[in-house]
Specification:
322 residues; alpha/beta; seven-stranded parallel beta sheet; 10 helices
Length: 322
């Protein structure tokens, strides 16, 4: 791949840092746009995430823009946080679209973060881009789960409504990106296992869609190279698995007891309230598969969770000297 100019609005979070670090090491020109940029080896630009400003010039002439901006969903869904979660995604996506539309030389590719949560709670069958059912209208769906789907659908509507005819667009319906670096979901799951708490959550029957960070990066590079791919793309392992199996494999990879203390729904509700988060993040069944990637010839290095979690545990030990 020849050197590219890559711009990452909202790139100061864990996913943005994974991508920035990789592309910088590969010799590409990387610019991160963030409200509170961190010192780094690549260029960083400040924005307020609300108005067009000097930052928009970074998009003019770029090869690739990956917009990752959005308030964390790891919080309580009170009125203030709901408003910030939704507005931060829709406003920034609209801003990036405006900046691209006003560019003299618009980027060739615009990838925008989305989420695998857009699909319904699925225990019965996998959800792909062509036959998957967007959630929100199924009977008895919890209001907080309905809110998450409303955010996801509004996010994608804003993205695809942007007037950017010279730019190929891809909505990244990403599953949980598993990385050994601090602050991510894998670090949290391993923290539970290390303390003997890594049993099933609720019934444990709900599916977890995930992707190894190496394959996440490779999938982004694959999408860059394949001009025929556009629209929503599931970024996930082809083999989601039930929560109890995911935690069992992780306990084995850590070489701890094969029995982990389970967390029933009532305990999860109490814990979520104490930690300032929501149980949806662990109880909703996300059974997502990457049909478009597979049909286009993408090959995963870590398709199965067993191999992935052993690799992630080993890398976590190396990073933490354990």
């Amino acid at each position: 791949m020849p050197p590219l100019r890559i711009v990452l609005p909202g790139g100061s979070g864990q996913i943005g840092q994974i991508l920035a670090r990789h592309f910088h090491e590969q010799g590409h020109s990387v610019t991160v746009i963030a409200r509170h940029p961190k010192p780094s080896e690549w260029q960083t630009i400040t924005w307020d995430a609300n108005t067009l400003g000097d930052w928009a010039g970074a998009l003019d002439g770029a090869d690739l823009v990956i917009n990752l901006a959005g308030h964390t969903v790891n919080c309580r869904y009170n009125e203030t946080n709901r408003r910030q979660i939704k507005n931060s995604r829709i406003f920034t996506t609209n801003l990036v679209g405006q900046a691209i539309a006003e560019s003299s030389h618009p980027p060739r590719i615009w990838m925008n973060a989305s989420t695998a949560t857009i699909y319904r709670h699925a225990l019965d069958r996998p959800m792909d881009e062509l036959t998957g059912e967007v959630g929100g209208n199924e009977p008895n769906v919890p209001r907080k789960w309905q809110f998450s789907i409303d955010v996801a659908t509004g996010w994608e509507r804003t993205f695809f409504a942007a007037e950017t005819p010279r730019t190929r667009r891809i909505a990244l319906r990403s599953a949980m990106v598993m990385s050994p670096h601090p602050g991510g979901i894998f670090d949290t799951l391993l923290w539970l296992v290390r303390r003997g708490l890594g049993g099933r959550a609720g019934s444990g029957r709900q599916y977890v869609s995930w992707i190894h960070d190496v394959d996440f990066i490779r999938a982004i590079e694959f999408l860059i190279a394949h001009d025929e791919i556009s629209g929503p793309v599931n970024i996930s392992s082809p083999f989601p698995l039930q929560n109890w199996k995911l935690m069992f494999c992780l306990r084995r990879a850590w070489c701890t007891s094969y029995v982990g203390l389970p967390a029933p729904r009532w305990a999860l509700a109490i814990g979520a309230a104490i930690l300032g988060t929501e149980t949806e993040l662990v109880l909703k069944s996300r059974r997502v598969v990457p049909r478009l990637l597979l049909d286009s010839g993408f090959e995963f290095h870590f398709p199965n969770w067993r191999g992935a979690c052993h690799d992630l545990v080993e890398r976590w030990r190396q990073l933490n000297g354990d």
